[in-house]
Structures
1.
Amino acid sequence: MEPKHEGAIEIESPDEFEARVGLNFSKTSLLRKALTHRSYINENPDVLEDNERLEFLGDAVLDFLVGAWLYNRFPEMREGELTRLRSALVRTEELAAFGRQIDLGRAIRLGRGELQAGGRERKAMLCATFEALIGALYLDADLEGVEAFLKPMLEIAAEQILALRQHEDPKSLLQEIVQAHGYGPPQYRTVSATGPEHKKTFEVEAIIGDTVYGKGSGHSKRSAAKMAAQDALKNLDLE
């Protein structure tokens, strides 16, 4: 079967996606549903259900399965670090990265507006669809099927997160690094606050000595400072 096209965008059918990724659904309707965004429903009245309920289920399955996998994979790791590592593995950015690994965007069924807006590449879209895929796989093949699919991704991702200390609080990690090099604690300066009162966006700079090393934005000063610390860690060169 040839893939369909929307303008210049190649759309992979659920059957093609299943074959390419190496999945084997006994209930193909579950996979089709997992790949269907609500915007597709609006333009295709014959399609009755989107993937939001499967996304809800997949989110819960991932929390449990990743926690169980970490418990067995790292028997000496303490509870606090296990919690932080699980959070890093199931955050939006990481699940979106898992989605990119299997080129999930090609198979997401979207409405024309979402397609034209670049919905296939958005982190939130890839994350939500990956969660829906996990929910569908759980219903079709139980936890064993999900684990077999997910375990190779978790092994690589966990190794990278631990090596780069990405599961640690970025502000604490930044302070530890700069003080080890003889600097005082990083300072965080709010440089702007824009938008309506109920939904302001704050811009914060992370300053080491007299130099701005990182910038971040968020809907609270705390989240913006965290992003600034993450940016500073990328830019840091204290050797």
2.
Amino acid sequence: MLEVFSVTGPIYITIALGYVATRFGLFQASDMRILGRYVLYIALPMLLFRALSQKSVTEIANPAYIGVYLAGTLTMVLLGYLVVRKLFGRERMTAAVSAMGMSCPNSGFVGYPILMLVFPSVAGTVFALNMFVENVFIVPLLLVLAERARGQEGHPLKALGGALGRLALNPLVIGLAAGLVFSLTGLQLPGPLAKSVDLFAQSSAALSLFVIGGMLVGLPVTGLAGRVIPVVIGKLLVHPSIMLLVLMIVPVLGFAPVETPFREAAILSAAMPVFSIYPILAQKYGEEGFAAVSLVATTAVSFLTVSGLLWYLAL
């Protein structure tokens, strides 16, 4: 267990440092937004570009992993939406936003730093594959559900087109696409540019965790427990359980199994807390308070659940 905490400890110590530094005035909450924009718009796109551009297509192409991660996450979207909508009797908007929280892990700010500590040889590739699945398939689907619930962009194809249009301008998607182009063509950046990309990419891990901690300061934490608890359970426990189940079913159905360490990385990725832009996306639908509380709760509880999962995977 001490080995597990040696992995998760630095992650959550860095998050705690960001919280303390902001809570006691060394940084302001507005500073975290600025640092967060740097991570989202510069550091993480550079990381994605580096992870893909420095590998051949054969190293990146992992249809088995993509299929399993997509199937597991889509199942979580459907299950989360139906449970909140039918079992708890919530309105469609609440179900859509809740499903987003249950199925969209923090692959960049928390997942990648943990993968770097546990599976450094495949961390960059797994991060890129996760970003591909989440940005191309999962987030557009969830935005369509939310738009339909709001009564805007009535036709599903119109809603999907709007979601894809916004994603096409996302720096993470641009970094992903640029990295794939370089991988496919064999292009290489000149030395100075390549070293500059490395510097920006290397800054993403610690700074992203620090920002997460700073973002937790001042967020509301009361009054929404009844809605937040299902998101916490769905994101931290159900999503990785579904991923494990899919990994077990795939070989039985005759498909190629996901090999170690990608197998463990898929489960671990699904166990990450809610992605950091959750409140930003939910703000458009008037659900930013609920999303912010869910972000706080899943980030805090994930210290225990992720540590437990790492202990289980180490057995």
3.
Amino acid sequence: MIYVTGDTHGGIDISKLSDKYFKEQTSLTKQDYLIIAGDFGFIWEKKVQEYWVNWFEGKNFTTLFVDGNHENFDLINSYKTELWNNGKIHKISNSIKHLTRGQIFTIDNRKIFSFGGARSIDKALRREGVSWWKEEMPSKEEYNEAIENLNKNDWKVDYIITHTAPTSIIHVMETDHEVYNKENELSDFLEEIEKKVKYKKWFFGHYHLDKNINNKCYALYQNIIKLDI
């Protein structure tokens, strides 16, 4: 089984993964997956990271995450890139895997397209290399690899997991943070993807709300949703 939820922010929003709220986990195994839609935040500093890696190792499921804008990209990228289920990952541990940008993974016979990243609205309050990294926004190579992988799959996937949303979806979300509603190069890229790719559902985090946009695109924060076949 595969579940997906929104940002965890390195422990700030971890309570949703407790048995109280995520009751289904008691019957899961390491062959079941929970996908975090960006701002995972636990791969931040070595001293704290060790505690949380052990915490996730103790869970009855395997955690997958796309990156958000609030990640330590220096630390994440220090892990060796590996091939897993037809896509590239950073294997943080046996129970934690970073789904890199522009990949199409085959998990439980479902094709899942991953594309992390977003632009920070609080960049001015952060320090580069300490609390903010320019890698929050994709490189040209990552955009190109996404297009290449979608071409190889005839632009057909089952699910899409990103951190931010396509431009047209941003404009109809009516978030409390008006600055979020402004498009940028990444949301425009995702907009072009949305127009061309055939998919069942699209899940994203970033906006700190839970909202069914159009019965196809979903903003996630506290909710945990099971992916149907």
